[in-house]
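Sample entry (476 residues):
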Amino acid sequence: MLWIVRVALSRPYTFIVLAILILLLGPLVYVNMRTDIFPDIKVPVVSAVWTYNGLPPADMSDRIVTYYERQLTSTVNDIEHIESQSLPGVGIVKIFFQPDANINAAVSQVTALSQTVLKRLPPGITPPLILSYNASSVPILQLALSSKTLLDNQLFDISNNFMRPQLAEVEGAAVPSPYGGKNRQIQVDLDYHAMRSKGITPDDVTTALAKQNLILPAGTEKVGKFEYNVLLNASPTVLDDLNNLPVKTVNGATIYIKDVAYVRDGFSPQQNMVRVNGRHSVLTTIQKNGAASTLDIIEHVKKLLPKIEAGAPPGLIVKLVGDQSVFVKSAIAGVIREGVIAAGLTALMILLFLGSWRSTIIVTISIPLSILTAIIALSVAGQTINVMTLGGLALAVGILVDEATVTIESINWHLEHGKPVMAAILDGANQIVVPAFVSLLSICIVFVPMFFLTGVPKYLFVPLAEAVIFSMVASF
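Predicted structure, serialized as tokens:
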């Protein structure tokens, strides 16, 4: 093991240049590494969301979900396991794939199968919504929309149709449907007493709306050198005109929709409610999806907010909720703080007991060099800056202090006995190299079992183990 020491003594400038290279390359690698909450959990998931309004959960499970699951297992490749949930009118099937599965091929197979099984499912069912994500796709920021002047359905409309398309432009951001508020719908409120008195049924009203509210493209008409767009009055352009549609002629009298019902601009039954500080709100969730950094996504969303608020109706209040960048930045600051404190206290101890500025500087520099080397190695291994790698680095800082302190103390002991510098370094290193190496192996072997984990624990704890091991090897 002493060959490293001998090479360093014979070629000091090589190691000085290497140290400078680490000092320059380490921060550069750190700046370009992605910063996330968790490591990349490479468990690809594809969800198929079936909807069939009015179907009870038991029928949804028996008639749709169960049959669909059986077909998945015989057609789709690389399935790890399947989870499903049946709710009133909704069936959610989650297909978990093997980590090395081709997710694009998996989505294509699931989509193709979903189209194929439609003929065997209850009549009138529509194809499912296919969603692709992985286990590390988590909410990283939420926007709470509230107002003293805007209604709940207006807030929902702003979030769903105005904000979502703009937020979706942010790289790595996924924006699901908002929570809270009221989903705008054109409602037809039936007057059953009036319908009964005039002999009108709900089917009559439905048929009248379906036949007189049509989308009929008419094309263009060329007259001379001009070409005109032809518009048909097959669909009312004003909401109140729907009330004037005829429903049926009874005893020579025409019954209109306004006689038996009232068409209004309303909303569907509210499924969930959001309150922020006691006020009705709409919650827009930003999820991390893809390889973009969590901090980058949140920063880009915050930069985009002034533009969104400028184009929004007056009175809209947008409040940031659940900002995960605060947590990530705090974790990074914690590691840096612990490293600085450890290096400072160690340097103070060596200065007090050894009285050597040179030894103090050596120990102070060795700790950040080891951390930066570990960051470079983590980047090469494809890891990101996250709470697990930061936890590993924080764990390693205390051990790095011990190794640097023991080495310097051993060399100084030989110097105090009158030995030349070269001899003191070689003898001091020779005394501690075997114990230090055994200590290195003893610490690293504790983390070896983590590399044999499978599933989500593997992706969570392997980065922590790598951070500790790379730091220890660099320090040694």
